[in-house]
Structures are given as C-alpha cells and as structure tokens.
Amino acid sequence: MFDFEGVLERGSRDEFLLHQINPEKMPQHIAIIMDGNGRWAARRGRPRVVGHRAGVQAVRQSVETAARLKLKALTLYAFSVENWKRPHLEVVTLMSLLKEFLRSELAEIKRNNIRFTTSGRIEELDRSIQKEIAFAKQQTESNTGMVLNIALNYGGRNEIVDAFRQLCSDYQRTGRNPAEISENEISRYLYTAELPDPDLLIRTSGEMRISNFLLWQIAYSEIYVVDTLWPDFNRISLFEAIIEFQKRERRYGGLAPVEQSAARMAK
Ligand code: IPE
Ligand code: IPE
Ligand code: MG
User: Which entry of 3, 22, 83, 112 is annotated as an active-site residue?
Assistant: First the structure.
C-alpha cells in the first residue's frame, strides 16, 4: 500500500510510526500552512531569508513522503496575497526559491508521477515565474499520481471573489436562474475545483489561525497545529500528524457511530 521499501532504516522512529498508520483511514488530501521560517532563522541569529531557504528542504521531504503515502493531494501554502507586505528582499527571495524549487525538483516530480498545479492569482506574478509554473504544469499534466498543489499569491477571500465573478458572468451569459446555485457548483468555481476538500489541515509553528487559507474547503477539515517550525518539519512530523488525524472522530454534525446506535435503540 505505502511505498517506503528500502527508504526507512530498520528500527528507526520513522519505521515505528509508519506501522501505526492505518492504511484504511488515510486522509485523501492534506493541506499545510508552512509557517515559522522567520522564527527558525531568528533563533539562530540569522536573517529571515535563511529560514526560507531551510524551509525548501522541508517542502522536498513533505512532498516525497506524501507521494510515498499515496495521498491524492497535498496543498502547500507558499505565499499569501498578504505576504506582499513583507520587505522587498524577502518577497524576491521567496519567489526565486520557488523558481529554483520548480527547476531542481521537476525531474523528481515527474519520476514520482506527481501532477503539479497551483491555487492563486498566478497571472499577477513575474513573467519568469509564470513561465516556470506553466512549464511544470504542462510537463506533469498527464501524471496520474498525487496532485501537488502550491498555493501561491493565494487568498481565501480572493478565491471566493474570483469564483463569484466567473459564476455570475456565466449565469448572466446563459440566462440561468441563480436559484440553481448549489454548494457543489460553488466548489467547482474555486481554484481547487478538481480536488477533494482537505481532510487534514496542518499548521506549523504553533499559530492558532487560518490566515485566509482555503476558507470554503476546510469546513470540516481536522485541524492539527504543531509547535515545530516549518524548516524542522520532516517525515516523522507528517507521520505524527496522520496518526493524530486517525484518532479523531469526524462527526460532521451528526453523532458518533456508538451514540448513533444507542440513540436508535432508545427510540
Ligand atoms: C512561513 O514562514 C513562510 C511564508 C509565509 C512564506 P514565515 O516567514 O511566516 O515565518 P515566521 O512566521 O515569521 O516565523
Ligand atoms: C501564512 O503565514 C501564509 C503562508 C504560510 C504562506 P503568515 O506567516 O503569512 O501568516 P500570519 O501573518 O502569521 O497570519
Ligand atoms: Mg509566519
């Protein structure tokens, strides 16, 4: 089921944790708010960009691990629409790290049968990045394995605005009745139209907020906040998050199965 043959050391913590993961209860889609790069660097007395550079390694490992776990989708929050407020040098560094990542990882992404996609207003980014992104998408479009979705120049409210604009204009053009709008249809107008909603939302660095991420899609996601700073997040961290996820009881507003049957018997 999983694909860690020859990857994990015998008797290692990774191997121990992997055995605790139930292949029957895997999340299909994991979304991660990769936070804490700046603090990671500050703790070492280094500039923030050093933290971002270190964060790329964590991205690489998470993508590889998620693919080996055979997830359907992994969404990584890489740059929010609010992140433009940061100093110019930091923004430029983040963008060039992304470009570097796409260049250096594309072969590996292809080898792992991963399909690359993005969520966010890509058309507002630098031409050179747009080109790199378009190339990676085109090169991987027929891959059938995990979808790697990078949220870039992403804002959850922007996403809803963009969906409204498109939906309203389609309705106007075709004369359809707005009473026909359903939840499913709205989902299909979002950047994530082709993806299932995230089952698990991870945020690193202990911050208890959503920061404008996937507002619509996380309605019933399990939220897992971990103190680990993003550059320190590794395979073990991802295994631990999934083990915790599998202990949760997802009720979607209903009752747990035991309570449900007790209630039925009492009727
Ligand atoms: C997350 O780390 C990366 C991005 C937002 C791009 P931060 O840069 O937010 O790090 P902290 O939160 O300041 O530690
Ligand atoms: C969220 O982190 C955005 C990304 C991880 C890309 P931020 O560091 O920007 O969020 P706030 O400012 O703490 O809410
Ligand atoms: Mg932050």
Answer: 83
